[in-house]
Design goal:
Length: 330
């Protein structure tokens, strides 16, 4: 562990968790060129201090390695931090009560946004419809993402704003849920959500800055120091926000960007050139092959037991996905 190098930084604490023993213990850490060069007790590390070494003593505060989160959608997750979380609801009525209370507490929000409901945990196990949301929110658009994020529950106002009617056709790889009369019922699957999300997530630059700022504070509070933003360009254009924070020295979490694997390698290469710093860089490409079980959009070998007419489908033709992967790998 010992090294004769002069450190740039030495940090010490009575509670350092190195992962080498079960409990935190007193230790000093010497760092040079952004790498740990030595760990030991204060006496052992003292010789690493030169006249320009910065020395920090954190007494009883815990020091430990940072957590790295491999799969986030930063801005969507950051919006969720400031939305209504419906995971605890055990019935549609309970979910509506939570949504109503939240909406009242945020009169300034034009859209009422919620996350992580799951009818599988509800007493009836039945999917909700727009009518129950209309009852509590007749005039404000509402967008409630299912726990898996592959479908959403919206009210009539949201459908009107997105111009989704009985005459709207399903987008490719998306389904507009309909009632027995062919009217949209308020459940939008996969790409059918996009028309609503575009309006709900139409944030100003200052709103984006605030959303991202909240995210960085939240990540830091949990000891998360590095994240992967998987296909982070999906619904909120925010790379310029990340860059602005980095340029101003305010980027406190290292971000690995994973743009869409979509056949447009020119765009991906351009992003890789633009974002290649220590704190903000393109690390790979992301695409998903199919959906999720609860929406019956996951691609199965056999038909669904309760919906024998479907076995799901792939998000793109398999030949397309294979070609994209091979081209990107090259």
């Amino acid at each position: 562990m010992m090294s004769q190098q002069v450190a740039d930084v030495i940090i010490s604490s009575n509670t350092v968790f190195t992962g080498l023993s079960d409990q935190p213990e007193p230790a000093s850490i010497a760092i040079k060129d952004n790498k740990i060069v030595a760990i030991g007790n204060e006496e052992e590390i003292k010789h690493c201090a030169g006249e320009h070494t910065k020395i920090y003593q954190f007494k009883d505060q815990l020091i430990m390695p940072g957590f790295h989160d491999f799969h986030l959608h930063i801005m969507q997750g950051a919006v969720a931090l400031n939305s209504v979380n419906l995971f605890a609801a055990r019935s549609e009525d309970e979910a509506l009560e939570m949504i109503g209370e939240f909406a009242e507490s945020k009169p300034e929000n034009q859209w009422v946004i919620g996350f992580t409901w799951d009818a599988g945990y509800w007493d009836t196990q039945q999917l909700p419809t727009r009518h129950s949301l209309d009852h509590i929110l007749p005039d404000r658009p509402a967008l409630m993402f299912h726990a898996e994020g592959h479908y959403a529950w919206v009210n009539t106002k949201a459908l009107e704003i997105a111009n989704i009617t009985r005459h709207s056709e399903n987008p490719f790889y998306g389904i507009i849920g309909r009632d027995e009369n062919g009217e949209p019922n308020g459940i939008l699957y996969e790409k059918a959500m996009d028309a609503v999300i575009r309006h709900a997530f139409n944030f100003s630059n200052s709103q984006k800055n605030e959303i991202f700022s909240n995210f960085l504070a939240h990540a830091a509070s949990l000891g998360v120091t590095s994240v992967n933003d998987l296909h982070g360009l999906k619904t909120i254009e925010s790379l310029d926000v990340f860059k602005e924070f980095e340029d101003n020295g305010k980027l406190t979490t290292r971000i690995h960007l994973w743009p869409a694997l979509n056949g447009d390698l020119g765009h991906s290469k351009q992003l890789r050139v633009t974002y290649q710093s220590d704190k903000l860089r393109v690390s790979g490409l992301k695409q998903f092959i199919d959906g999720v079980i609860t929406a019956r959009t996951a691609y199965l070998l056999e038909p669904y037991a309760d919906q024998p007419e479907t076995r799901g489908e792939t998000s793109f033709p398999p030949e397309t996905i294979k070609k994209w992967v091979v081209d990107a790998d090259k």
